[in-house]
Amino acid sequence: MPNTNLEQRSFPFTKLRFTIEGNRELVVEHSTPFRSTRQALPLHLIDPSPIHHRSIPFGWVVITLVSLLLTVSALYAGWRGEGPGELFGVLLLTGIFLACLYNTIRLSSNALHFRNVNTAAVMLTLFRSKPSSAEVDAFVEKLRNQIQSFRTPASASTEEVVALYVKHLDYLLQNDVLHRSEYDAAMQRLNERASNRKVFELVR
Hints:
204 residues, alpha+beta, 5 helices, 46% helix, elongated
């Protein structure tokens, strides 16, 4: 399966890149002009249903509107052409408005939080509208499908469940997550429980 990517940029020069690698991992890369990090998250640990969190800092919205009103009023009163003092006042009010606007945008939240399926702790966060809502939704849907395809279907037969667990054990052995002795012990328990036709769970 080809990798699926989503890239999200923020000011100043910050980039988040999410890559679904095969059907095993989600790679998260965070980069700035001076630092970059890369983390691989196993898909089976991610809850496929994210939490959509949206908030607007009402107080900062009010302050931003007031500063905008003062700036427009100063321009309307003709401060810009009356003298150096008035011109400085207009520039100061404009600077205050821009600072308030930046802070309002920075404190606003429109994000999707993906949790750990075991602990419910937030593992990663995606901006809801970067680069666009449609692109984020498409990526989230692909991620959900990959996560769910990794898990055991509820209607799977015993033989299908056994085959799936064997596939997972083979992958862990090939990537040196399990030692050969651990692999053999897990296979023995798997075969014993499968032969009894009982519901089973592999203990990690």
